[in-house]
Amino acid sequence: MSKVSTLTSEMPVLSLPVEAEVRYRMEVVFRLTVTPFVARQNANVYLLMNVGNLLSSDEPGLVLGETPYWQVPIFCAFPEFGRREQIGVLAVDVNSGAILLEHSYPSTPQEIERRAEAIYHSLGTSSAGT
Predict the structure, then answer these.
(1) pLDDT at 125 over 50
(2) In a domain, 75, yes or no
(3) Residue 39: enclosing H or E segment and its boundaries?
(4) Structurally, how many domains does the chain consist of?
(5) Exposed, middle or buried: residue 89 (CB in 10 Å: 0-12, 13-18, 19+)?
(6) Is residue 90 part of a domain?
(7) Which residues contact 86 (CB under 8 A, 6 or more apart)?
């Protein structure tokens, strides 16, 4: 099943009469050459090559904007806690399959690693208290 993303846009406030009828249409046309499967594979390869082997991706969603891209959730496995936690998202270009760090969070391999470490420590702290 395909996912549909909603694009939100802000417009300046217009002077409109009460109960005015407003219609708004927008058409976005672009070529999609990278499938969700390939976007997920590219994210997994990036994570393995740049961060580590306990990271993986999940099903991407399509983000429509000036530059459309796949938004791929990234997860880190914590085997000793029996958990898999989302640590961010990687953006993947819909045409080239390249990782778009400017649209990703965290936006560098070092930040991804720090985020995973922070979650690991919070899991360790919460399990020690139980």
Answers:
(1) yes
(2) yes
(3) helix 36-50
(4) 1
(5) buried
(6) yes
(7) 58, 73, 74, 75
Residues 76/87, Cβ–Cβ less than 8 Å: yes
d(CA 70, CA 94): 6
DSSP for 41-96, written as a single string: HHHHHHHHHHT-TTEEE---EEE-SSS-EEEEEEEEEEGGGTEEEEEEEEEEETTT
Question: How distant, in Å, are the alpha carbons of 78, 112, 122 from that of 50?
Answer: 18, 10, 23
Of 39-48, 65-74, 88-97, least confident by mean pLDDT is 65-74
Domain annotation covers residue 57: yes
State which residues form the domain around 96.
36-128
User: Is 71 domain-assigned?
Assistant: yes
pLDDT tens for each residue of 49-91: 999 888 999 999 999 888 889 999 999 999 888 889 999 999 9
